[in-house]
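dude i think i finally got it to work??
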Amino acid sequence: MASIPEVDKIWMDGELVPWAEARVHVLTHALHYGSGVFEGIRCYKTPAGPGIFRLEEHLKRLVRSAKLYYMPVPYSLERLYNATFELIEGNGLDHCYIRPIIFRGYGEMGLFPMNAPIEVTIAAWPWGAYLGEEGIARGIRAKVSSIQSLDHTALARAAKATGQYLNSILAKIEVTNSGYDEAIMLTGHGHVAEGSGENIFVVRDGVLMTPPPSDGVLEGITRDSVMRIARAEGIEVQERTMARSDLVIADELFFTGTAAEIVPIREVDDQFIGDPGPVTRRVQERFRAIVEGRDEEFGHYMEYARS
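look at this
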């Protein structure tokens, strides 16, 4: 995976600052304890200009995540919305990946963090497909990791929080070192949960299935979009608990996520699932039409700078 390409500016606590000057103190609370929440958002090049996929929904989830970790956000949703477009315009970007983060800054140490200042940063840079264009086109090889997913009673799983990704990092390293593209994580009960940074979908007998939030999965915005797209296409959708064996006997499998988009899984644990199937392709094609500004039914998912 490529390193982050530098652009001109990063939005930090209300102003655009030069990329190289966007720094935090070494004693920042979030660096030591993982006390931060974040989002991954994509902006696409469209005929109407840079369009951000479901920006308001992403920012609402960011604020919800902060609430779950007792972090009052010092900016309104409207300010964060406008700041995102200020950042894109200030860097001259027509497509990019966007990373807002809210975190506890420098000024307090220890496990009771309530006196640490709350800082807000938004960065954006050009970033291609997380699992590669080849992966989107042909599918990837996945392996079930020995690292478990987090139970929804262990942490605030409805939050997209920085510290909650430590087990995902371990899972990703484990399977990558074994020659696979991505990890699939199971719950403590052995149920299918998610990838290291993606939700997972199973297709069997024409029915599209995905694990429910009660199995500790993040309620992904791309996940929600795929379920809505599938229903619009007349495909039955179910949220249901699944066993590991459901992966192997699936007709089709795919990951979803902002960074990954929609990526077919052609192989799990050295068991061949198949080339990308018809349901996967239909959902992929509809998703691509939406993010390129070519779909009227879901046109409201693309958000543009407010005049």
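The mean pLDDT is 95.
im so relieved honestly
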